[in-house]
Design brief:
The protein has a single domain, classed as Rossmann fold (3-Layer(aba) Sandwich), CATH 3.40.50.10400. 47% of the residues lie in helices and 15% in strands. Strands 2-1-3-4 form a four-stranded parallel sheet, with helices on both faces. Strand 3, helix 3 and strand 4 form a beta-alpha-beta unit. Helix 2 runs parallel beside helix 3.
Length: 131
């Protein structure tokens, strides 16, 4: 399978993970090094929606809607589409919804550890031994 010209979406827990920015950045960097021609959407790198007095739940819903639109956009533009799961979808409502939506769109769902067997070691290094 030629993964170079692929649309990739990184999915994982954001709301309840204080290290989500570093975790997602590591995943993006590893994917980019391996697949330099791939388009990668890292939702953790786009935490820029205006809060405008919204509750945490309202802002969460805004981000989820934006992310589902991005998944749909990737679906429209790339023949090969992959959702890389950071493995915490069972404890993350948003990640579970992204995964279900991506599956419905025909994305290939891959656990990050499938592609990077040393993920846990590299993540622990990135987080200073906390993974």
């Amino acid at each position: 399978m030629d993964l170079r010209k692929t649309g990739i979406y990184i999915s994982g827990s954001i709301s309840h993970d204080p290290d989500f920015v570093k975790k997602f950045a590591l995943a993006e960097r590893l994917i980019q090094e391996t697949l330099p021609e791939a388009f990668i959407f890292n939702p953790a790198a786009h935490q820029d929606l205006p809060a405008d007095g919204k509750t945490d739940e309202e802002l969460w819903a805004d981000y989820l809607c934006r992310d589902l639109v991005m998944l749909n956009t990737i679906d429209d533009k790339f023949r090969m589409r992959i959702l890389f799961s950071l493995g915490d979808h069972r404890t993350s409502k948003g990640s579970s919804l992204e995964r279900a939506f991506a599956k419905r769109l025909g994305f290939r769902i891959m656990e990050i550890r499938e592609f990077f067997p040393d993920w846990d070691t590299r993540l622990a290094e990135e987080l200073g031994g906390k993974a």
